[in-house]
Write a structure and sequence with these properties.
three-stranded antiparallel sheet
């Protein structure tokens, strides 16, 4: 699986292709440092921009481009060949590509762990118990049928287990099922897949 980069990200990374390998690797180390430690040091960026004689935003964009490459590659657990092919399309030399690959392989587990820690922890489905009750008569109404579905939804959030009691009638349950099936079909469209890929 190749990395998907926007034109803007490619433009930010193209600036790095004109630099010497030592400078590119220093940029890569800074970008990994920012990912692992969680904050960017403006003084480092300003010093690098002054040394190269460019605007500080160009340096910042180059580093954020490398951050994206390392974080997305780690998140998707991209293999060596796919990583090399993704970086090759940016115009880096073979020497730079193999040095970036080495940095990626050395740090991807740590980067992935940090990304997992940052991910939103939301409850997810664990188990569902259900019961179908039908009231056939009451004192005031001798001939009636009042079906009710009672559900106990178990969810998990890390080590925490939660159980919620839900009650509905068959008409609402059918409507809910139809809406969920429509949503699942919608998720299969190319438009939705593109949005989900960009959100991830």
């Amino acid at each position: 699986m190749l990395l998907i980069l926007s034109e803007e990200q490619k433009e930010h990374l193209r600036f790095l292709t004109s630099l010497e390998i030592d400078v590119i690797l220093e940029f890569a180390r800074i970008s990994l440092d920012f990912i692992l430690k969680g904050s960017s040091n403006l003084k480092i960026l300003q010093a690098a921009a002054q040394k190269l004689g460019v605007d500080v935003n160009i340096v910042k964009n180059g580093i954020s481009g490398l951050q994206h490459v390392f974080s997305e590659s780690s998140r998707l657990m991209i293999g060596e060949i796919d990583f090399q092919d993704s970086v090759m399309t940016l115009g880096f030399s073979k020497e730079v590509i193999s040095a970036l690959l080495q940095l990626y392989l050395e740090n991807r587990k740590e980067v992935r762990n940090i990304l997992l820690e940052m991910a939103l922890a939301i409850p997810h489905y664990h188990e569902l118990e259900w019961r179908f009750d039908v009231e056939l008569a009451s004192r005031s109404l001798r001939h009636q049928t009042n079906p009710v579905i009672i559900m106990k939804l178990h969810t998990k959030e890390g080590e925490k287990n939660t159980a919620d009691i839900l009650q509905t009638d068959p008409v609402n349950l059918i409507h809910l099922t139809t809406e969920l099936e429509n949503a699942m079909q919608e998720m299969k469209t190319a438009y939705c897949r593109r949005i989900v890929r960009n959100i991830k």
